[in-house]
């Protein structure tokens, strides 16, 4: 009788062990299946991405640098064209650079950035140069990791504002050898942004400010139906202009101080005092 009970316990323990082993086998099988599905789904995509870069290294640089270019453009646009404005007005907790300024009363302003396009291009270049260097180093290391012999000669970077785009070009040469040798000499990046158009309108407004001490913003909105122009006047004589493209949300804002009046002294009083 005791032997029968002992045998039953042994059989029960054996069944429990087998159930535990079966459970472990099932879990392992499920993990293997899940990993297989993930590899099937994502590995071709990863492999395909690098194959794309192999044929087009400019795409690698574009993807690496695009966010840095966009972030630089936003920062510059919010601050009147400069990464670190030196002569500015604090508006909405941002340093907005004066593009036209005269500290005296009754006088129209003087242009502060006569070459605004060139200034902004140089600001973008300066702000992204370290990231660009890192991107080319990553490009070189990626190809080496795939078994390529790499000869990379980095050249000058050029930044240009063009209609509806920011164009970045690199005078760099990449030579890859893996069975055969291929050389790439053209690294061009184009990022969508209408900073070119907004700066053009800003220059036009500045011209009005230098001539008349003010501008008629409705003229621009009548001619450019997707453009919103805001003019925020402040008691010290400063005007903040905010140009916004309603389609893209891109904006450019800047400060001007032109034909300012002393506190409590209006334009009509100034005119009468000049006559007498």
Question: Explain this structure to me?
Answer:
- It is a single chain.
- By secondary structure, the protein is of the alpha+beta class.
- The protein has two domains: 1-55; 56-257, no CATH class.
- The protein is built from six helices and twelve strands.
- It has helices at 2-55, 57-78, 116-145, 195-212, 217-223, 267-275, and strands spanning 88-91, 94-101, 110-111, 149-153, 157-162, 165-170, 173-178, 180-184, 187-192, 227-233, 238-245, 251-257.
- Strands 1, 2, 3, 10, 11 and 12 form a six-stranded mixed β-sheet that branches. Strands 4-7-8 form a three-stranded antiparallel β-sheet, with helices on one face.
- Helix 1 (2-55) crosses helix 2 and helix 2 packs antiparallel against helix 3 (116-145).
- The protein is elongated, with a radius of gyration of 32 Å.
- The protein starts with a helix and ends with a helix.
């Amino acid at each position: 009788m005791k032997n029968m009970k002992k045998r039953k316990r042994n059989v029960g323990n054996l069944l429990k062990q087998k159930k535990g082993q079966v459970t472990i086998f099932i879990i392992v099988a499920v993990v293997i299946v899940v990993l297989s599905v993930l590899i099937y789904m994502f590995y071709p995509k990863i492999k395909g991405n690098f194959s794309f870069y192999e044929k087009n290294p400019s795409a690698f640089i574009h993807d690496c640098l695009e966010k840095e270019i966009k972030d630089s453009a936003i920062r510059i646009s919010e601050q009147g064209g400069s990464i670190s404005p030196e002569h500015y007005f604090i508006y909405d907790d941002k340093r907005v650079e004066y593009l036209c300024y005269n500290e005296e009363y009754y006088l129209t302003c003087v242009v502060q950035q006569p070459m605004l396009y060139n200034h902004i291009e140089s600001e973008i270049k300066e702000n992204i140069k370290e990231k660009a260097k890192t991107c080319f180093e990553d490009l070189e290391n990626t190809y080496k990791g795939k078994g390529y012999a790499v000869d990379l000669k980095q050249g000058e970077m050029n930044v240009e504002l063009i209609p509806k785009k920011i164009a970045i070009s690199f005078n760099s040469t990449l030579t890859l050898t893996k069975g055969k040798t291929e050389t790439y000499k053209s690294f061009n990046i184009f990022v969508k942004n209408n900073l070119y158009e907004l700066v053009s309108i800003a220059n036009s407004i500045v011209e009005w400010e230098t001539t008349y001490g003010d501008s008629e913003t409705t003229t621009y909105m009548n001619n450019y139906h997707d453009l919103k122009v805001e003019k925020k006047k402040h008691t010290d004589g400063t005007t903040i202009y905010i140009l916004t493209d309603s389609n893209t949300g891109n904006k450019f804002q800047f400060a001007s101080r032109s034909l300012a009046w002393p506190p409590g002294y209006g334009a009509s009083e100034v005119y009468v005092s000049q006559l007498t």
